[in-house]
Amino acid sequence: MSAPAATVSMGAGRRTAAPGGVPTVGLIILLIAVVVSAVFPWAMQWPEEWTVPLRSWITAALHWLARDLSFGLFTFRDLTRGMAAILTWPLDIAEAVLFEGFKRQGVPPVPWVALSGGAVLLGHYLGGRRLALLAGLAMLYLAIFGLWADAMRTLSLVVVTVPLAAAAGLMLAILAFQSARMDRVLRVLFDLMQAMPHLSYLAPVAVFFGFGPVAAMIASGLFALAPMARCVLLGLRTIPSNIVEAGLMCGCTPRQLLWRTQFPAALPAVLIGLNQVVMQVLAMAVIASLIGATGLGHRLLVSLQQLQLGRAVEFGVAIVLMAIVLDRFTQAWAARATVHQIDTSWLARHRHMAAFLVLLAVAYALTPWFPALNQLPKSATITTAPFWDQGIRWISLNLAGPLSAFRDGATVYGLLPTRNAFLWLPWPLLLALVVVLALRLGGVRLAVLTGSLIVFILAIGLWEPAMMTLYLTTLAVFICLLIGVPLGVLAARRPRAGRAILTLCDTLQTFPSFIYLIPVIMLFRVGDLASLIAIVAYAMVPIIRFTHLGITRISVNVIEAATAAGATPRQLLWKVQLPLSIPEIMLGVNQTILMALAMTAITALIGSRDLGQEILKALPEVDTGRGLLAGLSIAFIGIVADRLISAWIRKRGARYGFAQL
User: Fold this and answer.
1) What pTM was estimated for this model as a whole?
2) Is residue 472 part of a domain?
3) Beta strands 14-16 and 7-9: pairing type?
4) At residue 16, what are phi and psi to the nearest 5 degrees?
5) pLDDT of 455-502, one tens digit each?
């Protein structure tokens, strides 16, 4: 619902509120909230007797589904376990091909030299020499550092999950494209799925499918489904009308129009969605080690729990290399989607595949005489863990004083007062502030939506963990603004610096969220400061990118007009470029808030006491209601922020004539 219109009295030079009395109503709401907070003790803390026991209801309901629901011939548990057994087959095949082999048939796995050579050839086919070199170095790192088997376990999960998640996302996108009602339902569902943190997917999946690699695969696929569906839907909806009209004029049936005209035209967007699926599955596969996923994520988690930080660095680097290579491969594939080769011989068109088949045959032929070609023996591998451990000890001995002083000062004079202020804030006052702001920006419908989401968090008894989450998120977003906006401005105004900054942003976006925990633990141990720094590092990129986008999108005519009017470079920045970039910057803030909220769930592993900790505590106890409600609370905070910022951008765009993004 659009915000109420406002009229401007040109003679008086002031803005007068439109009919409806929104400012008056908002002022009354705030006054009532202040009075209630000052008079009634329950305003400072939600009474326990007012709490709805939704947590126990959900846990009991899901346990009943998983254990007691029967369809006569079989139970719901039999159904889910049967699905898990079916999904085990492709996962077992992938693991056998990549690192275990088919032991009953006596067939060894694909030798590591053949897989490495295949990655190099694929990189050369997709992106040329640089991508081939990157792929080769990454595979060599995995082999030489003795991480091959763990990396192949993780890759097996990714290889099996990505096609399933991509196919499911594609089908849902087509349903939404063809049905307006389904589109409305799925839009709400996708908003909720993307706003919920990674960890909140784990407990429900564990209840229905148990613990193990298959449960991890299902959780990863569910998490990656929404980005694929959104990208496909965007691609289908942005097809030029003349392409659709040409298909109709050729007599295409609706099915032919979809699969032979619209889908090929939307293929670049589909491949971008596939890139997102690959990255999301890999990120989730690391986190899903909490419910039994094996591979690099599990080894990294164990290393962090045992404070074997040197080994954790090696596992972290391996995960980052895998993420970068997979990201570059899928991006290069998307770029090649519209490349058509001239009709030549099969060998000329598939020389890379032919080279791989020759390499595979030679590797299999030589492995009986040279076993190291199949798998490097432990004596041939190296480790840098002692180096990293020694570096950490050096930091502890030589920088312990400055780091401790910084940690203690930031905690005592910054974090603790801010945290106490958030915990002190009366809930009626915060609720009134949100409702009044929503009323001003988007009208009654937005006020009802945001107010209802806040009341939900109150009613389920998660107000204090929600305030802890809000405290960390608010501080992180503020710091991201202080750092990210200047970096975005620098990237836009200095092309050489911009290339370096944007390359760093590309790299950071490929890092799974677990990776950010390693350096903060090394330097600051555990606690709120370590959590805050990890959140800032993870959520910084959108601010930089959208600030850069906002400034570079400003018309050259506007810049020339300001320069002709005598504006200095500083005036040009502060009075022209930044004001005109506000909508893009606020979109960056929106994305930063969502990423910061997602990261708060991960930082629960290093001691944060917020909604993420509620999710983490629910996993070993399989307390599905607790974990699900905490995840929903994080999602609702993100939805409130998203709706308020989006309404503000629309209102500002309508007032000043900005194009809607």
Assistant:
1) 0.82
2) yes
3) antiparallel
4) -115, 135
5) 999 999 999 999 999 999 999 999 999 999 999 999 998 888 888 998
